[in-house]
Amino acid sequence: MTFSLQDRICILVPWALMMMMMIYVKAQPEFFVPPGSMTWNEARNHCQVCYKELVTLTPSSIQVIAQKLTSVYWIGLRKHPQPPCPLSMPWSRWANGDFLTYQNWYPGWPVLKSPGGVPGTEDLCVATLRFGAWVEKNCSELLPYICYDERFSGQVSITAVTTSSANFTWQPMAGAIDHYHVEVRGGINLKAISTNLTPIATNLTADSTNLTAIGTNLAAISTNLAAIGTNMTAISAHSTPIGTYPTVIGINPTTIGINPTTIGTNPSSVGSHLTAIGTDLVAIATDLDAIANDLTPTGTDPISTGTDPTATGTDPTPTGTDPTPTGTDPTATGTDPTATGTDPTETDLTTIGTNPTKVCINMTAIGTNLTAIGTNLTAIGTNLMAISTNLTAVGTNLTAMGANLLAFGTNLKAIGTNLTPNGTNPMAIGPNLTHDLSNLTGGTRYSIQVFPVKCGRTLKPQAATFYTIPNEVQNLNVTKVTETSVFLSWNKPSGHADLYRVKVNGSEGSQTTNLMRSEVRGLKPGINHTFIVFSGLYNDSLWSEASHISAYTKPLRVSNLRVSGNTPDSLLLSWTPPEGDITGFRVQAVNDSNDTLCEETVEDGWNRTRPEVKVTELPIGTRITLSVVAIASGTLESDKATIVNYTAPAPISHLELDTKDSSLMATWTQPNGSYSSFEVTLRLDGEDVEPTAHVTEPEKQYEELKSGANYTVIVRTVSGHLRSPPLGKSKFTLPRPPTDVEVVFTGKDRLAFKWKSPDSTKTTNYLVNISSSFWNYNKSETLVGKTEHTFENLRSGTRFLFQVQTVTDTERSSPANISHCTEADEREISLSMLCSSAEPLLCAENSTKESVFSQLEAHFEILLGDHVFWKLEKQESENTIA
After folding, report:
1. CA dist., res. 324 & res. 642, Å (int)
2. DSSP character for 369?
3. Do residues 553 and 560 lie in contact, with contact meaning Cβ atoms separated by under 8 Å?
4. What's the number of CA atoms in the CB half-sphere (13 Å) around residue 783?
5. How far is CA 225 from the centre of its chain?
6. Which has more confidence, 759 or 120?
7. What letter would DSSP give residue 639?
């Protein structure tokens, strides 16, 4: 069994003994009681090989050790046969070399003088009693013993860590190490743990129940073992006369002890082991029950009828005497030897005699003590019966405890499977202090425990934890670019990774994210950047190898986009390029219907300061939308820079002017191609008469103009801000006629006329004309600046038509007319008519005369009209007509 200083239960030590104690400070050891009994030398050798040394007792350690003592044990103290100094004590140093600063001798020990009077010559070693006091023993006696071992605190060193391998080295431990047991754990799958939470909870509930039962069983075992100890003490008082049976019932209670440290390692095997122990104890209990029945078959002393023929019924040993007054062995009877002051080991029971049927007691030696022996044997039987009962209970409890531990082991195994799905890698390694691990998972936390195995005993491990280096991210891609940022995405690497670090090559800073994507900002436009991505862990100490990808940022738009050199079918486009590694430009021209008119890529030979492109084969006079994009890396384009402009329009043709005295109509033929409007300008004497007009139809009407003025019309085709070459034409408006024409003089051969000039007339030239259709007479004259005129040499009595027109160089106004007659120079002509009729007296009738006169008058009206002066009158004389 093992116990340490963590188990502290104070025991009372007599004040007289405490006076000899000194404070002793050292690293905490662990204490062990190996199975079996040995001589002091054998015990020390075994402790040195498998532990550190035989135990060294200190004030603090004895408090721990004394709680566990059930017998007499060797400790690491031996008498020096020949002290190095005559004045020195024979008990001066412990087996490990420490000075003896603490002593706890049982009264009467040590024996400083040998029985023969020569001091310190016997070979004596020190044992501790079950309550902590020391006594001397012959070093050749076989006793259980206590070893101690110092807690070893080595450290595992991890080196050469990669994504799938590592090397670890540990520190050697002193002593005979059989081998090193290594356990490597790692690769916890959190998803599997989450999935298995329900069975884990179920297992833990069952474990709680099992542990409760185990606690109950252990409590019962503790009670039973205490009873066994009491019974064993009672048995030891009566063990001498038993004869054959003590060898049968001699049980080493230390074999029942359980090392609790092994439960956690393999609870299933411990449970199986405890079950077997329980079965064995039940069998032992059965045997002891049979022995008890054999010793006291009727509950009385089997030799109760015998008497002691030689004695008086008293103890043959001298009563109240102590053959070794200073050296009484308190271990002989299991009781405090100070109670009687005798040494039971001095009694020679072989002279008592034997029971020929059962016990084989020497009847000669029994004498008067048969009654006492019977009483003793009855007590022994009673005690053995109690032991049988207790051991039966212990066996039952241990059997139940074994079953519980088996269930507990199964649950622990299930929990272990759930918590460490990648498994555990236990291995036994020889004396080498280094080992290589392979086939590890990247980015995973591993724990290593190296257990030294010494004499079959697994010691406290050296431990370390480490992370393997994470693997590189997978499928690193650029998903989006802007002028100043790039969006990256990737897949999680194989193994484990908690976070990712993104860095731009050549930049000092970096950014960290736990997502499998990142936006890198603050970049220069149009530049090729190399991005580096590492996968890492939360401890921020290990990063994977770099994954690289290069990408251009989007170029900025071109600036200062301008159009010049407009022709009817071409435009000259120029711009300022953006900063960055620009490899070319794409130029596009579209019309208002978004039809592509021209598209061209400029890659070589462009002016690095002011690139320009002549866009040709464009439609005439058309609104054109031009765009330019900068190109980086041959394919990555900037946003468009656009400008709207027009090709030059074609001029009009066939300009015609139609004028009147106060209006003008201009018409023309529209040009080929497109245009937006026409710009029409009207000028007079080199000055614009009114603001320039914009019309969409090929005509323009002007009103309220000056008559007789020479107007010039200029027409241009308009396309956007562009105008075609002008086409102009001049023409006079028609003059207005004079007004208020009147005859101011009438004569037989002349007529005089007068008129007024028309309003808004720029000129004062007139054309006058007088005519007579009867005489076929027509005469015209042009007057400059005159508003009256007289015509002479006219025929008298004739009606003349007078016309006056305002005239210009090429145009005349409508005439202003007036007719008037010259004075008549009258002459009388007589006409006679002869009337004959077949009807008598017809010609004499008045009606006939009136009819003839009317006909004659109508004839002259037709012939002369009002062209000349004439008058037809009847002559009142008979038979005449004037």
Report:
1. 124
2. G
3. no
4. 22
5. 62
6. 759
7. -
Distances (CA, A) of 448 to 153, 160, 420, 845: 14, 15, 14, 172
- Average pLDDT of the residues in 41-53: 91
853 vs 741: which has the higher pLDDT: 741
For the chain, the C-alpha Rg in angstroms (whole number) is 74
User: Taking Cα atoms as reference points, which of 638, 613, 620, 618 lies closest to residue 563?
Assistant: 613
The pLDDT tens digits of the residues spanning 801-824 come to 999 988 887 788 889 999 999 998
Q: How far apart are CA 20 and CA 100, in angstroms?
A: 10
| CB-CB contact of 328 with 341 (8 Å) | yes
User: DSSP readout, 513-541?
Assistant: ESSSEEEE-SPPTT-EEEEEEEEE-TTSS
51: which 2 tokens?
A: 């532990």
The answer to whether the beta carbons of residues 440 and 165 sit under 8 Å apart is yes
Torsion of CA 155, 160, 161, 167, to 10 degrees: -50
Q: How far apart are CA 36 and CA 145, in angstroms?
A: 8
Mean of pLDDT over the chain? 75
SS3 content of the chain, % helix, strand, coil (to 5): 25, 30, 45
pLDDT over 90 at 377, yes or no? no
pTM of the predicted model over 0.70: no
Distance separating alpha carbons of residues 660 and 733, to the nearest angstrom: 5
- The H-or-E segment that residue 371 falls in is helix 370-419
pLDDT at 287 over 60: no
Backbone angles phi, psi at 25, to 5 degrees: -115, 125
Going by pLDDT thresholds of 50, 70 and 90, the confidence category of residue 790 is very high
Look at residue 776 in the predicted model and tell me its pLDDT: 92
Q: What is the residue-wise DSSP string for 279-292? A: HHHHHHHHHHHHHH
Buried b (16+ CB within 10 A) or exposed e, 673-683: bbbbbbbbbbb
pLDDT tens per residue across span 866-877: 888 888 887 765
Q: What dihedral angle (degrees, nearest 10) is formed by the CA atoms of 391, 395, 396, 401?
A: 130
What gap in Å lies between CA 263 and CA 269, rounded to an integer? Answer: 8
Spatial CA neighbour of 408 closest among 260, 257, 256: 260
Query: pLDDT tens, 424-470?
Result: 445 555 556 888 899 999 989 899 988 888 888 888 888 888 899 99
CB 216 within 8 A of CB 393: no
Whether residue 422 has pLDDT greater than 90: no
- Specify the long-range contacts of residues 215-223, CB closer than 8 Å, at least 24 apart: 217/397, 217/398, 217/400, 217/401, 217/404, 218/401, 220/393, 220/394, 220/397, 221/394, 221/397, 221/398, 221/401
State the amino acid at position 780 in one-letter form. Answer: S
